[in-house]
Amino acid sequence: MLSDTERRELEDAVKHYPDTRGATIDALLTIQRRRGWISDDSLLEIAQFLGMTVEDVDSIATFYNLIFRKPVGRHVAFMCDSISCWIKGCEQVQAQIKKLYDVDLGQTTSDGRLTVLPIACLGQCERAPAMMIDQDVYGDVTPEQIEQIVEKYK
Amino acid sequence: MERPLTQHILHSDGSTRTLREYVKDGGYRCLKRLAAGLAPKDVQRLVTEAGLRGRGGGGFPTGAKWSFVPMGPDAPKPKYIVANGDEMEPGTFKDRVLMEGDPHGLVEGMILAGYAIDAEIGYIFLRGEYHLSAQRLNHAIAEAYAEGYLGKPLPGTGFQFNLHLHASAGRYICGEETALINALEGKRAVPRAKPPFPQTVGLWGQPTIVQNVETLYNIPHLINHGADWYHRLSRTQDGGTKIYGISGRVTNPGWWELPLGITARELLERYAGGMANGARFRGLLPGGISTAFMTEEHLDLPMDFSSIPPEVGRLGTATMIVLDDHTCPVGFVLNLEKFFARESCGWCTPCREGLPWVAKLLTSFEEGRATTGDLSLLEMHTKWLAPGHTFCGLAPGAMAPLQSALKYYRDDFEQHISLGRCPWSKKSAQQRILV
Ligand SMILES: Cc1cc2nc3c(=O)[nH]c(=O)nc-3n(C[C@H](O)[C@H](O)[C@H](O)COP(=O)(O)O)c2cc1C
Ligand code: SF4
Ligand code: FES
Questions:
Q1: How many angstroms separate the CA atoms of A97 and B317, rounded?
Q2: Which of A80, A126, B110, B399 could form a disulfide with B253 if both were Cys (CB 3.0 to 4.6 A apart)?
Q3: Listed range (B110-119, B366-375, B425-434) with the worst mean pLDDT
Q4: How many domains does one find in chain B?
Q5: pLDDT of residue B435
Q6: What's this model's pTM, rounded to 2 decimal places?
Q7: What's the A79 CA to ligand 2 centre distance in angstroms?
Q8: B129 half-sphere exposure, CB direction, 13 A CA radius
Q9: Residue A127 CA: which ligand is closest?
Q10: Which of A26, A63, A83 sits opposite B189 (nearest CB)?
C-alpha cells in the first residue's frame, strides 16, 4: 500500500499536469526512489492511484531505462558507453569493474551492493570516460581509480 | 568578443549563479520592457529579425516556427511552451553547461518565449540523468515564483506564466519533439505523425512550441540588445553566438561560446589546443552523432547553419567529436550504430530491424568475418533508412555518419576484409588508451 508520504508526493506530482496520467513518470520515479525498484505490487498501486490499467503503466515503465522493473543493488553504477567515452577507453574502465567486483553489465554483485548498467552519453564528453554512481558523476575516469571511487559506496 | 550566454559561467569551479547575481547583471530586466509596450508580436518580430535558428540540431528559424501558432482572442487556450532539455545526443553537453551554470537564464527565456506566443504554461523537459541541473533549476524556479516572475501577472501586461520541471527517465527518442510530447502526457515516447504539427496540435491537443534549451537562452539577450547587435555577434548570416564543444583525443577537450561561423580548424587548433600528443586528425562529427563526418578538406568551412553544403553535412549541435588515427573508424561507427539500435523506439520497421542489422554487419567487420557483399549491404541500408522511409529522424540520423564513413574511410573498411581482422584490434587497443 502507498505510504502517507508516498501518497502526498504523488498528489503533488499530479497537480502539475492537466491530466493525471501526465504524472506517470513522476510517480514511477518517486516510488522507485523510496523502494529501490518497481515491483508488480508497486505498479498496481501506481495504476490505482492514477486511474490507469496496470498494463498501461507497465507499458510506460518498461519503455524507460531508468525505471527498474527488477531489483537492483544498493547502488547503481551507470557506465557511459557512447562514442567520446569509447574513444577514451570506457571498455577498459568497465573491464576493471568486472575484474574487481565480478559483475558484467546488467548484473548485481552477489552481496547486493552494486548494479552495473550501460548508459547513453552522460553529457560529460569533455571529461570522457565518464560514469555515474547513483547521482554522482565522475569524469576522466581511469581503471586505476575505479576501486577508490566504488569504495565510497557501501 | 562578446559571450552573452556564458560570460558569467566559470569553466573551472562548476558553481552556479544565484538570483541576486543574475539580476545584478541585468537578468529579468526584459520583463519590465514588456510592460513598456513590447507586445507579443514585437517579440516575435525581434526573434525573426535577429535570425535566431534552433540550437537543438535542426537549425530551424525560431521566428518562423512561432508564426504557425494561432494568436489572438480566438486562439485555443491554454498554449504550451516546452524547453527541450533531453540532451542525449552523444558527444553533446552544451545545454548542461547552461542549465548548471545559469539556471535563471532558462527561466527568463521560457517566460519570454511564453509571452511571445501567449502560452501561459511551460514545462522544462529534462533528461533523468541531469540531477545537478534538476536541483539548480528547481531552486531557480522556486526563487522566480517567490519574486513574482512566475505565477503572478507580470506588471503592466496581464500575462501570467507558470513553469514546471519534468524530470524524464532515459531514452534518447524522448528528445524528438513529438515523442517528447507523448512522454510528457504520460504515454510511451514514440513519435507522432506530422502534420498536424505541435504548433497547432501539441501537448494535450493544444498549440505547443518545443524549443531547445540553448535557443531559449538567446531570447533575453536579443530582446535586451536588439536584432542588429545580435547579428553582429555572428560572423555569418545566422545570428548570434553558439556554444561549440570538442571531445575526443584533443589536447584540451571542452566548450566555448563563440561567434557562429567560426571554422572547425580554429576550434580544433586555437581552442582545443590541437590533437593530443601522438594522435593525428582523421575527421570529425561536427555536432553529435547524427551528423556526417567532415575531414581535413572541410576544416575551413564556417560552422553555422547556412554555410555547410548539404552534400557535405550539417552543423547539428556543434559539439564535435574527433576521430584520430589511434581509433578504428569502423569501430567508431559500430559504437554509434549500437547506440542507435538500442535507442530505436521500435515504432517503424526499417529502423527497428535495420539498425540492429547494420550493427551486426559492422561487428562482422570488426571480427574479421566481413565480405565485400557486406559493404554493399551497408550501402543499401543507408538508402533504406534514408529520410522519407522512417517515421522520425532517428534512423536517417544514424545513416549520416555511416554513409560518410563509407565514403571517407572506405580503405579502412576494405582493409578489415582483406586482413580478416581489425587493424586496430587488441594490442593497439592497449596502446590507444595510453595516448
Ligand atoms: C531522435 C531525435 C532526438 C532529438 N533529441 C533532441 C534533444 O535531445 N534536444 C533537442 O533540443 N532537440 C532534439 N531533437 C530535435 C527536436 O525534435 C526539435 O527539433 C528541437 O527540440 C527543436 O528545438 P530548436 O528549434 O530550438 O532547435 C531530436 C530529434 C530527433 C529526431
Ligand atoms: S525511425 Fe526509429 S525511432 Fe523513429 S519512429 Fe521509427 S522506429 Fe521509432
Ligand atoms: S560520450 Fe560519454 S559522456 Fe558523452
A1: 32
A2: A126
A3: B425-434
A4: 3
A5: 42
A6: 0.97
A7: 25
A8: 29
A9: 3
A10: A63
